[in-house]
Design brief:
By secondary structure, this protein is of the alpha+beta class. It is built from 9 helices and 9 strands. Helix 1 packs across helix 5 (126-139).
């Protein structure tokens, strides 16, 4: 029997979708668990994962990419938008979504409060943290000097380990971060593990399918996401050979989460799940579940606004 690789968490399956690369300069931290702080080392981390050997990492490419994507705008929604409905949705977004989905939000939301599958938040153990930091350092020559997106020159080796990578191996630091939603229409499927195919189904949790198809490029304009219906798998594969079924019963692939209305404070921190009477001083009640005919008009307006981001 081979020796266990201690940097890998034992028996902990994870599904993690790649976050958008748009406007990375508007985020203090990246990855769904908020691990990597430095924009430069975010690219180093991705490069090490592909190259395998830190000595094969293209450091200059990581620098140029960090500069390029710092304020890279997302693509515009390519279909018609109801401008009047989107304007109504903008106010709904401001009241219910903006406190958490905003630029430079570094709050780590515990999984027991947001309800999403916890596996990814627990994937980094102490051995994994040490391994990443060693590989980060080994990927960059000690004398290498770079320029960030603001024109500031510095040596990556001068960055303190705590400013490269948050220690998410500690239970109190585990959870997920939320960022701004630029280009949301093109970021399907949703949740950190890609377990919900459309924005509509994120906002109406009861509509989330147990299985759906991933890998389709044709678009579901009504629900805002890529086409996903499992009964059409054979049809999809004729046009998109890599289309495949995603099953939310798999370990780490749960579709739960972001499904219970929250009470938060003015900074976006969660006070509690659910609502208890009227909001008290300093509290905001935000809706995550838009089910029901009474919310239908507001939901339609919110969906229309989200297409504009």
């Amino acid at each position: 029997m081979g020796m266990p690789f201690k940097a890998l968490p034992q028996q902990l399956a994870t599904f993690t979708d790649i976050l958008s690369t748009w406007k990375q300069g508007s985020q203090h931290i990246a990855q769904v668990d908020g691990s990597v702080k430095s924009p430069f080392f975010r690219n180093i981390a991705a490069s090490v994962a592909v190259a395998g050997d830190p000595k094969m990492v293209n450091v200059r490419n990581a620098e140029v990419t960090a500069q390029f994507i710092s304020q890279l705008p997302p693509p515009l929604y390519p279909f018609p938008i109801d401008a009047a409905a989107a304007e109504r949705g903008k106010a709904i977004f401001a009241q219910n979504c903006a406190a958490c989905h905003r630029e430079f939000n570094d709050i780590v939301y515990p999984t027991d409060l947001i309800g999403t599958d916890p596996n990814r938040s627990r994937v980094l153990n102490a051995d994994g943290l040490a391994l990443f930091l060693r590989h980060f350092a080994a990927s960059v020559p000690a004398a290498y000097e770079m320029t960030d997106a603001n024109g500031t020159k510095f040596k990556p080796h001068d960055i303190a380990p705590a400013d490269m990578l948050f220690d998410r191996s500690r239970a109190e630091n585990q959870g997920y971060v939320t960022n701004a939603l630029e280009g949301l229409w093109a970021r399907a499927p949703y949740l950190h593990n890609g377990a919900v195919p459309t924005v509509y189904q994120v906002l109406v949790p009861s509509a989330r399918p147990a299985t759906f198809v991933r890998g389709v490029v044709s678009y579901d304009r009504k629900n805002v996401g890529f086409d996903w219906e499992p009964t059409r798998l054979a049809e999809y594969r004729a046009a998109y050979p890599t289309a495949a079924t995603f099953d939310t019963s798999w370990d780490g692939a749960s579709r739960i989460g972001h499904d219970t209305n929250l009470t938060i404070d003015q900074t976006g921190r969660i006070i509690k799940r659910g609502w208890d009477g009227d909001a008290r001083a300093g509290e905001l009640r935000v809706r995550l579940d838009w089910s029901g005919t009474e919310n239908q008009a507001a939901l339609a307006a919110l969906l229309e606004y989200l297409k504009t981001l």
